[in-house]
Amino acid sequence: MNFLKSLSVQVLIALALSLAVGAFAAAYGGEGVRRIIEGVEALGGLWLNALRMTVVPLIFAVLVTGIAQVSDAAATGRLAMRAVGLFLVLLLVSAVTAVLLVNGVLALWPVSEAASTALRAGAQAPPAGAATAPDFAEWVKTLAPANPIKAAADDAVLPVVVFAVFVGFALTRLPDGRGRTLIEVFQALGDAMIIIVRWVLMVAPAGVFALGLGVGLRAGAAAAGVLGHYIAVACSAGIAITVIAYVLAVTVGRVPLGRWARASSPVLATAFATQSSLACLPAMIERSQDELGVPARIADLVLPLAVAVFRFTSPAVNLAVCIFVAKVYGIEPTLLQYAGGVAVALAVSVGSVGLPGQVSFIVSVAPICFALGLPIDLLPILLAVEVAPDIFRTLGNVAGDMAVTAILARDEGEDAQAAA
């Protein structure tokens, strides 16, 4: 029964129980029962706001420290700089793939309007003006916030991200290590926010139960179908990125498919069991060296760096979550909103690396929702079923780490031959 001690399992049980109780109350309960559930649901709103209050300071803190970390890594040498550049290109590929794939999948397999209506009734309506965006000139002007504090208060995440990126790079350029003190302050702020989120997540089963009661009351059994639809869409994004990693290894890295399968299979099995890229690091190093013939100096640098700052599936799956939320609310983000959402997805994919799974889901997805003009009230419900998508997140991440290592090893070998 040790699996019952897992927070993810407890949250999933709480969600299933709350949906069942809410649906039963809708079918057989009277007006008094409904009022009781609405009172309990208010406690769920309190729990959600406790999560929301940490998002902006946490994303700012982790972005500043994350930028500093990447900058320090890039300063270690030419190979590290090439690795970081390849990471950024592939993260952009991941984001664009998700926007095209998920919108295509949901066009062919749309979310049920009846189920969406019922699920929306269990959460707040989207904010006024969420479906609109400024024109291009206005959008460009708002990228640099005239008042970063006001931008943070208004949940204008993209300007906050831009400001954080500039602050992060500026601190690494201060002479005599003077920026290190402030970087440590932001590190401490981020750590403090993580502690608060962990406190909030300690009562996640109760918070999700309270929110789920309202969803079950209004959506009934239709909620289960929508959540199953979401799981399939989110997993498809992770699977697509894993396939891309395979294609890159075989075509760009020039690793024969059979050899790549032999090298990656034990690592993917470990990823499936642990759902942790860090836990897969020893196996990735061993298989890359022994099966793929990657020199130790390359594997020992690139793979730890990849685990530290590169999550190949993060932009894809996070955007998949947001696009699904948009479809549930009937919101069609504009091209400019998608551009902002992709930019935020790239930034938070680096900044959120190393955060606990439940924390990284909130801090990665909520800012993208804000950039796309979406409410985040469904995120705690989706967090409850994140166990399945998280498996495919990890599979794609470790496959991407090994593919990048194979590509860089091939490039280094070609450079050495050219120099000779």
Task: Chart the SSEs and their pairings.
Elements: H1 7-28, H2 31-74, H3 78-108, H4 113-121, H5 136-143, H6 148-153, H7 157-172, H8 179-202, H9 204-219, H10 222-251, H11 257-274, H12 277-290, H13 296-309, H14 314-329, H15 335-351, H16 357-371, H17 379-384, H18 387-419
Model description:
The chain is an all-alpha fold and 420 residues long. The protein has a single domain, classed as Orthogonal Bundle (Proton glutamate symport protein), CATH 1.10.3860. Helix content is 81%, strand content 0%. The chain contains 18 helices and no strands. Helix 12 runs antiparallel to helix 13. The chain starts with 6 loop residues before the first helix and ends with a helix. The C terminus is likely disordered.
Q: What attributes characterize this protein structure?
A:
disordered C terminus, mainly alpha, 420 residues, single chain, 0% strand, Proton glutamate symport protein
The structural domain count equals: 1
Main sheet specs? none
Order of helices and strands: HHHHHHHHHHHHHHHHHH
Distance between the termini: 61 Å
Summary, kept brief:
The chain has 420 residues and is mostly helical. 81% of the residues lie in helices and 0% in strands. It has a single domain, classed as Proton glutamate symport protein (Orthogonal Bundle), CATH 1.10.3860.
